């Protein structure tokens, strides 16, 4: 605002007998302040707020102030957000009669001004005296979840109450229409947004944001555990990528003592396995006979609890065959050290922190299967040329008695990552570093301080695919390799055995298979790096390999070991197909107007974001089959954007390069950047909001 205007406004205040009433006269007789942005009314109001501080004598009290407060309340119902705070401050609304304020908000609510009623309640801190369900329900129906979060933001009691209400709406027999019926004719009502899926996502977001005990929401927790069970059955019996031992371990911890989940487990066993398997689990869970289907109850009576000798023999043969198929550690077992004491750890640190050292680093944590909160790192692996160190982080932290001892580990990790003289090798390093930050808050900016790191995820996007004679003959049924395993196969000739990836890394003692898997995951990085440095040209890489790769961790990690049913990483075959062409000749730049996509139903947020940037977007509805995306893509010449398992189905139904898999665990903005970069879409200022929203 120009100095001249400010002086004019202040001169006007000085000449008024009652500037507070004068401001209301002006606001009541004009409407320029009702629009968004900084109106003249806004400048005059904010200037009065400052002027009152310099002239406290103009402040009113008693009946005079009450009359002014009654007038300003009528204005507040219509004014934009930027005017609320100055007006509340000028007319001291925090000192007004609380019942009067509640009555006014109630009046707004009954007029159907739900958003205005909620915003005013937040500003005047009226929430403890209101019914949280009544205030928040219409906002949820209008898809104003952010406002609901703000409404309960400062009140833990209301957060718990709201979560319990939302969870009862997710009960299996509950009819959501019972709620929507009460709000017939609600303006801006979005019925497609108000469903169990949306409620479930919102509950998990609130549990995470407000750090509330998940036990308050048994319905959504059970539903998510059931999805985890379905996912575990898929991994074990369809993909066949999980060992019996790991699968059993996860199934046991997923169903726990919950009878409802145990009942579903028996049904799944009958679908995927047989009566014997169902009976064994019924016995393990001590399920009462009346809960069991007839066939299972009969089988339970016949069941002899005996380990069959054939099973053991079969397992031994399987282990031998695996050695032929998968990458094997080239160092003896005695060179893998599992460290659980501080004395052992200090000796390891001396070796790792030597200048010029090259270290392969990986981490393991218990799979979270989409539950609340980030997982904590359970195992830190560091591979040197002749030995591998596995640090048992939970045990070491347990032994740390004093605060100073607890700081030892994060301090060592900081020294390691910030030392440019030590080369650190990783794969999707920023994913590992964010899990370290969840374990120790002191490491939250580690990715910014890291020096001398080489993220082989970057290489993975540049390496040429090897010739087809590296075939899968004699390997039986196996899923296509992906991620680090695929890179190991391309560079070293055999893939990693990933059957232990989803095992329970918190359980002690670790099994021998877990120890070998963890050591291999870190050590293979050294071998890949060595081979690429010796002969970068044969892998389609430039000769200045180390120069181009040493630096900050890759910003876009693949989702590792944090899978839930909706977030299964796509096979990185997509990244590898025709990479030679991609690296030498990226696609010609196009504008958002020329780029048309169809977004699968798990990527609606991405779809909305791309539409804001001017991209021609069609989105699948929540209940649409994923295959509809392929139909639309073929009919309208669109690119499919999808994620997880549907990618495998959809990519085969359209031309090569017309289906792209997006990382579901990232936010819409990051996903959009990934898509724009991949298809070389150049966004200009004119494109933003160029399409009707």
From TrEMBL:
Xref: Pfam families: DNA_pol_A_exo1 (PF01612), Mut7-C (PF01927)
GO biological process, one term: nucleobase-containing compound metabolic process
SMART domains in the record: 35EXOc
Gene3D superfamilies per UniProt: Ribonuclease H-like superfamily/Ribonuclease H (3.30.420.10)
Region described as Disordered: spans on this chain: 557-585
Record carries keyword Nuclease: yes
Chain segments annotated as transmembrane: none
Polar residues bias (residue ranges): 565-575
Gene Ontology molecular functions: 3'-5' exonuclease activity; nucleic acid binding
Swiss-Prot/TrEMBL keywords: Exonuclease, Hydrolase, Nuclease
Stated name of the protein: MUT7 Exonuclease
Classification lineage: Eukaryota, Metazoa, Chordata, Craniata, Vertebrata
């Amino acid at each position: 605002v120009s100095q001249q205007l400010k002086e004019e406004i202040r001169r006007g205040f000085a000449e008024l007998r009652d500037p507070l009433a004068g401001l209301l006269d002006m606001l009541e007789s004009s409407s320029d302040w009702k629009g968004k942005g900084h109106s003249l009314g806004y400048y005059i109001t904010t200037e009065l707020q400052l002027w009152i501080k310099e002239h406290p004598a103009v402040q009113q009290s008693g009946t005079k102030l009450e009359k002014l407060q009654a007038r300003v309340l009528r204005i507040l119902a219509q004014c934009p957000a930027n005017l609320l705070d100055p007006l509340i401050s000028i007319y001291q609304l925090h000192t007004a009669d609380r019942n009067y304020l509640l009555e006014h908000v109630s009046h707004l609510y009954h007029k159907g001004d739900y958003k205005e009623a909620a915003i005013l309640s937040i500003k005047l801190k009226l929430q403890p005296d209101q019914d949280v369900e009544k205030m928040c329900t219409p906002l949820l129906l209008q898809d104003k979840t952010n406002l609901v979060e703000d409404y309960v933001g400062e009140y833990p009691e209301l957060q718990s109450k709201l979560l319990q209400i939302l969870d009862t709406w997710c009960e299996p027999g509950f009819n959501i229409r019972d709620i929507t019926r009460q709000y017939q004719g609600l303006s801006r009502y979005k019925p497609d947004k108000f469903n169990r899926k949306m409620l479930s996502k919102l509950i998990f977001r609130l549990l995470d944001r407000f750090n509330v005990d998940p036990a308050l929401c048994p319905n959504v927790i059970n539903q998510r555990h059931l999805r985890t069970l379905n996912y575990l059955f898929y991994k074990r019996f369809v993909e066949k990528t999980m060992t019996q031992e790991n699968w059993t371990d996860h199934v046991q911890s997923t169903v726990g003592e919950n009878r409802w989940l145990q009942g579903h487990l028996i049904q799944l066993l009958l679908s995927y396995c047989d009566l014997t398997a169902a009976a064994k689990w019924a016995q393990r869970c001590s399920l009462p006979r009346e809960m069991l289907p007839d066939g299972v109850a009969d089988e339970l009576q016949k069941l002899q609890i005996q380990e069959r000798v054939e099973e053991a023999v079969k397992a031994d043969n399987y282990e031998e065959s695996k050695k032929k198929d998968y990458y094997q550690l080239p160092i003896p077992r005695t060179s893998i050290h599992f460290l659980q004491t501080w004395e052992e750890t200090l000796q390891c640190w001396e070796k790792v922190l030597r200048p010029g050292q090259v270290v392969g680093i990986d981490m393991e944590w218990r799979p979270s299967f989409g539950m609340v909160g980030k997982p904590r790192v359970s195992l830190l692996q560091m591979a040197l040329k002749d030995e591998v160190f596995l640090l048992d982080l939970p045990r070491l932290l347990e032994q740390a008695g004093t605060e100073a001892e607890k700081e030892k580990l994060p301090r060592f990790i900081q020294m390691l990552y910030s030392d440019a003289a030590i080369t650190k090798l990783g794969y999707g390093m920023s994913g590992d570093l964010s899990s370290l930050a969840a374990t120790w808050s002191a490491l939250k900016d580690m990715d910014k301080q890291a020096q001398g790191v080489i993220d082989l995820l970057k290489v993975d996007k540049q390496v040429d695919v090897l010739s087809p004679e590296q075939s899968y003959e004699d390997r039986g049924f196996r899923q296509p390799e992906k991620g680090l395993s695929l890179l190991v196969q391309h560079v070293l000739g055999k893939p990693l055995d990933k059957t232990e990836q989803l095992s329970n890394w918190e359980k002690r003692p670790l099994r021998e298979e877990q120890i070998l898997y963890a050591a291999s995951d870190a050590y293979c990085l050294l071998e890949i790096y060595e081979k690429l440095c010796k002969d970068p040209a044969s892998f389609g890489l430039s000769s200045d390999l180390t120069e181009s790769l040493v630096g900050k961790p890759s910003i876009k990690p693949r989702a590792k070991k944090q899978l839930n049913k909706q977030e299964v990483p796509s096979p990185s075959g997509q990244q590898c197909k025709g990479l030679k062409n991609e690296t030498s000749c990226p696609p010609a730049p196009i504008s958002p107007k020329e780029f048309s996509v169809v977004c699968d139903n798990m990527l609606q947020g991405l779809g909305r974001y791309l539409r804001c940037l001017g991209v021609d977007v069609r989105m699948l509805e929540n209940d649409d089959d994923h295959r509809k995306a392929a139909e639309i893509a073929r009919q309208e010449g669109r690119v499919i954007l999808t994620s997880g398992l549907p990618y495998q189905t959809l990519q085969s139904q359209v031309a090569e390069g017309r289906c792209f898999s997006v990382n579901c665990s990232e936010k819409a903005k990051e996903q959009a950047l990934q898509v724009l970069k991949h298809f070389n879409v150049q966004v200009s200022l004119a494109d933003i909001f160029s399409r009707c929203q």
